[in-house]
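We now fix the convention by which a protein and its fold are recorded. Here is one such record, which you should read through line by line:

>
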Amino acid sequence: MVQHKNIIRIAVAAVCTLAFPLAVVSLSSEEVRYEALQIVTSWRGRLIGIHSVYVGDSITSAGRHWGAALGSINLAEDGYTVRQIGDQLVQAKQYSPERIFMLAGTNDVLSVKTFDPRQFELDYSSLLDRAQQTKAQVFITLIPFTSRAEANQFIPPANQIIKRLARSRGIPVIDLNPTIAPRGLLLTRYTVDGVHFSDATYSLWRAEIESAIRQDDAK
């Protein structure tokens, strides 16, 4: 009976994978095509699992499907904090992902006048607990600098906390800042508004993710 159900699931997933995208391609709006593909991917993921899930805030959200239209789902939402991103991980679990990619903390450090490192560590530690409960391979990207020095003051201490927590759990960390903000300020060519990324940055980020996967697999 279990084997029969698995065969049905695979058959339905195959239909979702082959038939729906053909219809989606005919849609005129890129935004509509993206949303439609995410729906298809969501159905497929619930049936047979999915390769990658992306969680985070608006920076991750703007990466769309990350170059793998039917192989990944992007659950990131604009304005989300570390605590709220934890809810995305609960949602991610239903897709049985192989890997989870996460950037969290930007809104926690840019939207406050004072930074509470103890509370941030508690929140981020809880986030990592949820991520590891999914049984997926977890990858973390550190908080990127912005183009405004006054907005960056809490980013270094927050990233130090993230690196320490990740290291203690054996979670790979991706740091874009040496390339996109070598002097602590996000370079113009890597941003569209001083905070959010340009297309060039997403290409760079995807390459860094692929490199991190290779390094982790080689261990």
Summary: Residues 59 and 196 are 6 Å apart (CA to CA). DSSP finds nine helices and five strands in the chain. The chain has two domains: 1-48, 50-217.
